[in-house]
Amino acid sequence: MSDSRPILFFDSGVGGLSIVAPARTALPQARFVYAADSAGFPYGTKGEAEIAARVPALLGRLAERYQPRLIVIACNTASTIALPFVRAALAIPIVGTVPAIKPAAEGSVTRTIAVLGTAATVRQAYVDDLAAHFASDCRVIRHGSADLVTLAEAKLRGQTIPIAAVHSAIAPMLEAEGGHAIDTVVLACTHFPLLADELAAAIAQPVTFVDGGPGIARRITHLTQGQAFTRDQSDLAVFTAPVDPSLEHAFAAHGFTSLDRL
Ligand code: DGL
Question: Which EC numbers characterise this protein's activity in its record (predicted)?
Answer without folding.
Answer: 5.1.1.3
